[in-house]
Amino acid sequence: MTVSVGLTLLALSLLANTPARAEDKRTLVIGVTQFPSTFHPVIDAMLAKSYVLGMTLRPVTTYGHDWQLSCLVCVTLPTLENGGAVRETTPDGKAGIAVTYKIRDGLTWGDGQPVTGDDIRFTWEVGKHPESGVTGADVYQRIWKVETPDPRTVVLHTDRVTYNYNNFNVEPLPAHLERAVFAADPRAYKQRTLYDTDTSNPGLYFGPYRVVEVSAGAFTALERNPHWSGPKPYFDRIVVRVIPNTAALEANLLSGAIDYIAGALGLTLDQALSLQSRRGGDFDFVYEAGLIYEHLDLNLDNPILADRRVRQALLHGIDRQAISQKLFQGKQPVADSNVSPLDWVHSDDVAKYPYDPAKAQALLADAGWKPGPGGVRINAKGEKLSLSLMTTAGARVREQVQQVLQHYWKQIGVEIRIHNEPARVFFGQTVRERRYDAMAMFAWISAPESLPRSTLATNMIPTEANNWAGQNYTGYRNPAVDALLDAIETDLNRDTRAAKWAELQRIYTADLPALPLYFRANPYVVPKWLKGIRPTGHQAPTTLWVENWRAEGR
User: Fold this and answer.
1) Domain 292-520 classified CATH 3.10.105.10?
2) What are the phi and psi torsion angles at 59 (to 5°)?
3) Which among 265, 264, 275, 365 has a CA at the least distance from the CA of 312?
4) Which residues pair with 157 in a beta bridge?
5) Which CATH superfamily is domain 61-178 in?
6) Strand pairing class (95-102; 153-158)
7) 538 closest CA partner among 449, 445, 450, 443
8) 76-102 confidence digits (pLDDT tens)
9) 18, pLDDT greater than 60
């Protein structure tokens, strides 16, 4: 493939803002397309952040490569069967549960302070505070008490018994550093946290690596954490370079300026397929289908999109099957709902929206949108059916999909205005604070059987009053869904819970708070000498096992 001069210059300009390429074999340079909007573990949900922090921190629990829940910070996964979890009655007389986690010996912050139960308790204090603005506030709100009977033990008391009662997929925060910052002004904590004001502070990390240098928008440099008690990582230094343009990213890989492109934050599927046809002998190619849902979040406060008929028309008006075949060779299947067929709770008994422009036009007409000047529909007030569509700038496939959607919707009389932003602005402000006025294209990455409370529950709508906590960016409000989320969560019977999951998917596909596009398959293009990288196919990034990475024959 010929790379244009413009792209080559772009690649060189990006490299000029990053550390010089190290020649020693113990440095690994990774290319990614996005820079984190924050480095704080529990503020903002962004894959670019999770990828970097996977090398520096560990959640208490996570789903592994086998899609089974396991301990990372804890010693043994507590269960009702082994006595680590015990049913109890809450102070208000409800059925609750106490879950005890034993912290692994030797876990130490990079400044030498031990990781303790108090760190987990402090994390809960931050998450539970109504003004902290954390992303997954629901995780903390259900915990009514935290006990630390000794430094290596923490007991979480929750106000309900749930099917995932022992899953605490949260990275502890260093109480000895962050508590004073938080206490000074909880509402301003998001802007004052040391994770963003003093990112290279070693005491913020307890994983195999710690952040030593950051250049906003350009790179993050990490070095071995001397206090890490686990297996010694192979690489002395890892540099994560940000190259937003995916064509420039590939050019940097082929020139040797970077060693590896992060699978979930790198090349598009079509690029990887093309590269494999040309340079297949130089790399190992893995196409990992997973729980990654590409979709359009709709701002339901927009009066046009508040009409369900318009939402259904928009989905009938695009040929998603053609998009899958022409852009992705069928490797990224059409999504009928927000639950992947790879997840055991997936149901096929949902409303489906095949390409049907005639039906789309009938729905729009029924909603009061009649043909107007220039082929754009208008309503009774003469207002045009015009919507904005936003996504992450430089993401080539998303920009291609935008153009295709714009073309399809023009055929049914819908005008689309495209406006894109850098990922850290798009995710850090526009989406999180619901500043997009119509449609935002991005992906949700989930764990197996991950309840979408944060994205669908009414009390998870981000507002200025709650400091933009929650991930219900669409502003979806449905009391029946709120009740169903509670019913699913507290049902420990797999069969009856599956039936409730099916009902949730039926409601979702009828209401369409978001427009499903496709389930992504991330391409992992790994140099032959780089070993140990194992995609999970779900939310947990490969970097959670970075200590297993190594170079052979480099």
Assistant:
1) yes
2) -75, 160
3) 365
4) 98, 145
5) Dipeptide-binding Protein; Domain 1 (3.90.76.10)
6) antiparallel
7) 445
8) 999 999 999 999 999 999 999 999 999
9) no
